[in-house]
Structures are given as structure tokens and as C-alpha cells.
Amino acid sequence: MRLTYLGKTGGSADGNCPALYRTDRNTYVVQGWQVTDPQALADVRDLAPGEAVVEVPADVLDLARSAR
Hints:
By secondary structure, the protein is α+β, with helices and mostly antiparallel strands. It has helices at 38-42, 58-66; strands spanning 3-8, 19-23, 28-31, 33-34, 54-55. Strands 1-2-3 form a 3-stranded antiparallel sheet, covered by helices on one side. A hairpin with a 4-residue loop joins strand 2 (19-23) and strand 3. It is globular, with a radius of gyration of 13 Å.
């Protein structure tokens, strides 16, 4: 898989993220803060082994719309 960097949140300082990438598989990869709060994780449905839950600002997801 290859990634194309689309951008990061407007609130990031240099080198900080969250960020969004488009893949060569017609999917997206989100780089964000790992969710470790037990109450939040209890609300997640069907988290399979190898999957992770990350938190990102809304403006990071807006990058996907503008990249089309």
C-alpha cells in the first residue's frame, strides 16, 4: 500500500498531527490520537483484533471531501 499525504489539522504545530492520507486502494488512512478512555471504548462496536480507534478533529476529515 502507498499513501499520499492530504494534510493535517489546522490546529497542528510543525510536525504534529492528526493527519489524513489517501491510499492507492481507494481508501483513507487517518493518523490521530489513540483512544484509551475505557468509557469511550465501551461505546465502540465490533472492534476486531488488529483494529484501533483514533480521534481526529473534524477538519481532518474535511480534507477527504476536498481531495476528490
